[in-house]
Structures are given as C-alpha cells and as structure tokens.
Design a protein that fits this description.
Layout lengths: L1 H7 L15 H13 L20 H15 L12 H8 L9 H8 L2 E6 L5 E3 L2 E4 L10 E7 L2 E9 L2 E8 H4 L5 H36 L25
Antiparallel strand pairs: 1-4, 2-3, 3-6, 4-5, 5-6
Length: 238
C-alpha cells in the first residue's frame, strides 16, 4: 500500500489503534453497511453471536454491489439532505488514476525485485524469462514485478518505464525462437549505430564552428611586438 501511495503521490496518514475518532468517516460508513445491509443478509450474526454462512463470496459481492449502487447512493442523507451520488458529483473531485495500463500493473503487482538482463533472458526463482525486447538490454539492471500466484510471466521496467512482459516457457507454454531474438538484437544495433552517427555529426559541426571563432594564435616561441615602441638594443653580457 505504501508503494502504491508513493507512485500516485498520496500521503498516508494512519490513525491510532483503538481510537475510532481518527477515522470517523469510514467508521460511519461501516455502521451504515451493518444497519442497512448486513442485518438483512441470510447468515448475519451480530457481535457476540454465531451463525452458519449462507452465501458464497461471489453472491455476497453481487448483493453488496447492488445495494451500494442502487440503494445507498440514491438514499437522501438525513444531515446533508441530498443523495450521496449527487453530493459526490457536485464536489468535482477527480481521483488520481494511473496514466496507462502498464502503470496500473506496476501498482497492482506489488512484489518488486531487481535483476540484470543476461544473454539468455532474466533468471528468477530458477526460471528463465525471455522476450525479444530484452535482447536490447543485455547487462542492464531492470525492475521486475510479478504475481506470486502466477509466475508464468513477469513485468519488466527499465528506468521507471514499462518495458515488456517476459514469459517463462516452462510455465506459460509459449516459445520465443532464436531467430526472433537475433532479429531484435540486429534492430537494436541499427538503432544504436544511427544514434551514434547523428551525435558524431553534431559534434563535428560544433567543433568546426568553434574553430572558426578562435583567432589564429602566434607562433610558439616568438614574442609579440609592441606597435609604436622602438626595439632596444641589449649588451652582450645581459
């Protein structure tokens, strides 16, 4: 949770245990859920009582969603005298959201590790993860994020930028051929050469312009003559 808040620019302020006054809004909502929804659900047991569960988790989730969106959000509040949905829309609050699905993956997959890309991919937990994109980042340190319940693929980030989804052929049943990897490496080499050629041309142009601005320096060993002053003769023993 701390990592998600940090990525979204949110400051976490925790309340003290046993002091519900520090979280009054959410405590009041829990009370509304308890009084308006839970008490009518089969298998509900107040505090201090026991009852057998009657609903599965998917059924309970569906009933809660229906009550929240169809009943609670459109019930006129006794103090504000308006519906919660209308009050929310009138406030104009826009929550901070990830700017892409890759960014969302970065937030949801909370397990992060640092690995170095090798010639044969990324080694992690005795598995090898490969993707054609990794061919251009050999010997580079990357950040991987993964779901502990599904190790078939990992999400790879380079310098805080989503790079690719690398797969483990043993777990995912997918394959990446050697020809695809060699093609990716060849394209990466072409991109690097093109970038170096462009930078070299810029440097040469800069040096040429700089040399034109520098005046010609006098010949080494000769002293500049002072204009308008006669040269003095010196004695042999000086």
């Amino acid at each position: 949770m701390e990592q998600v808040a940090l990525d979204l620019g949110i400051e976490l302020i925790f309340s003290e245990k046993g002091v519900p006054r520090g979280r009054g809004k959410i405590e009041r909502f829990f009370r509304s859920v308890n009084e308006l929804f839970l008490q009518d659900i089969p298998g509900y047991a107040p505090k201090g009582y026991q009852a057998e569960a009657m609903l599965s988790l998917p059924v309970f989730e569906q009933q809660f969603r229906t009550w929240l969106l169809s009943d609670y959000q459109h019930r006129v509040h006794s103090e504000t005298k308006c519906k919660p949905a209308s009050r929310w829309e009138a406030g104009g609050f826009v929550p901070r959201m990830p700017d892409s699905t890759e960014r969302l993956d970065l937030l949801l997959l909370t397990v992060a590790k640092t690995r170095r890309v090798q010639q044969d991919g990324i080694r992690f937990q005795n598995y090898r993860y490969i993707d054609t994109t990794l061919a251009a980042y050999v010997k580079e340190d990357v950040l991987i994020r993964y779901d502990p319940a599904d190790l078939a693929e990992i999400h790879v980030f380079y310098q805080d930028r989503f790079l690719c989804r690398a797969i483990c052929q043993e777990l995912a049943g997918q394959t990446v051929s050697l020809k695809e990897i060699e093609k990716a490496r060849s394209e990466r080499r072409k991109q690097v050469r093109a970038g170096l050629t462009t930078r070299a041309a810029v440097v040469e142009h800069f040096l040429a312009v700089h040399q034109e601005e520098i005046p010609a320096s006098p010949v080494q060993g000769s002293k500049p003559e002072t204009v308008g002053q006669p040269r003095l003769k010196g004695y042999i023993n000086e």
